[in-house]
Design brief:
23% strand, DUF1996, DUF1996 domain-containing protein, disordered C terminus, disordered N terminus
Length: 328
């Protein structure tokens, strides 16, 4: 039901999309663990200027972006998905999976009141969740097989229990209300049902912003040629499928961010234009995107686990509580 709603909303309301390539795996999270190298592993897309201390849009624009829209210097990250082979050598059990496609959808543009503010940051999802009880339904966390019939009885945020004929896909929805001064966020609500919300469907002091949605596809056919039945041999760096979450720091050129809201009568897909071009013509960068801080942190799963364990207290508790509290 959630998937059908999301697809219908995307078709009925103004939206745009930029596809963004992966450029690194790394155990940093500048929103939750600024300046530290103790996070679980993340997959990073967008501006390669990001490092453990990044906090501003201007910093991101100093880098090379892997976004297909040349005006998008934002950085997007999610916990890395791993193929888990329990019979492999002790330090080789987890193999990172590169997404086949990462798409950042910007939806409900005809309802947005303000563009993304400079330096805006947001988190969606709960990195400490281990079951549906730990989820906020507003996040829309969903795992499914693209193009296949919905699996009857499956929790939306659970991995599929049988082989995907095409791609494993996941969706994450971000808040679409924000205070431009404090960056406090919320999900829009019907004011008829939620008295604390105004006519713009946001809490007092907040304005509607474009609704960001991550859509990520993984092609598992080469990794799991025989498919699977039951629990797949997969795990996120933070745990099982329920800990899925996403992070975002705005790096759009201001002119392009404003272009998203230029025509509030639009009710369909359109390409965003800006100083560096339009649509999906490709990155304006002339070099390959790389880790801007290779001397710190790691892309190795086992090393990241050791780094987390060196934190005071339980690694899982420390990392996950910090992540879930960042913007909720």
């Amino acid at each position: 039901m959630i998937l059908s709603f999301l697809l219908a909303a995307g078709l009925a309301r103004a939206y745009t999309v930029t596809n963004v390539d992966l450029f690194m795996f790394k155990n940093i999270d500048p929103i939750v663990w600024p300046g530290q190298y103790v996070s679980h592993m993340h997959s990073f897309f967008g501006s390669d200027a990001v490092n453990a201390n990044t906090s501003t849009s201007a910093e991101l624009r100093e880098g090379c972006s892997t976004a297909r829209n040349p005006n998008d210097f934002s950085v997007y990250w999610v916990p890395t998905l791993y193929h888990v082979n329990a019979s492999a050598a002790a330090n080789k059990t987890h193999t990172p999976i590169t997404p086949m496609r990462f798409s950042a959808y910007y939806e409900l543009l005809n309802e947005a009141e303000i563009p993304f503010p400079e330096n805006f940051q947001a988190v969606a999802g709960n990195a400490s969740a281990t079951s549906p009880a730990g989820l906020n339904s507003d996040n829309g966390i969903t795992w499914f097989c693209e193009g296949d019939d919905a699996e009857e009885g499956k929790e939306s945020a659970a991995f599929p229990s049988k082989t995907c004929s095409t791609h494993l896909q996941t969706l994450i929805l971000f808040p679409d209300c924000a205070n431009p001064d404090t960056f406090e966020t919320a999900y829009s609500k019907n004011p008829d049902w939620f008295p604390a919300y105004g006519e713009n469907r946001c809490p007092e002091g907040m304005y509607r912003i474009p609704r960001l949605r991550f859509s990520i596809r993984y092609d598992l056919r080469g990794i799991l040629p025989d498919g699977w039945e039951g629990e797949p041999p997969l795990a996120l760096a933070c745990g099982n499928s329920f800990c899925s979450h996403g992070d975002f720091i705005n790096g759009w050129l201001p002119e392009a961010a404003e272009y998203m809201l230029r025509d509030p009568t639009k009710s369909e897909y359109f390409q965003v234009e800006g100083p560096l071009g339009a649509g999906d013509q490709g990155s304006a960068c002339t070099r390959e995107a790389v880790d801007s801080d290779p001397g710190h942190g790691t892309s190795d799963y086992e090393e990241s686990v050791v780094a987390m364990q060196q934190q005071t207290g339980s690694a899982a508790t420390s990392v996950n509580e910090g992540h879930s509290a960042a913007k909720h």
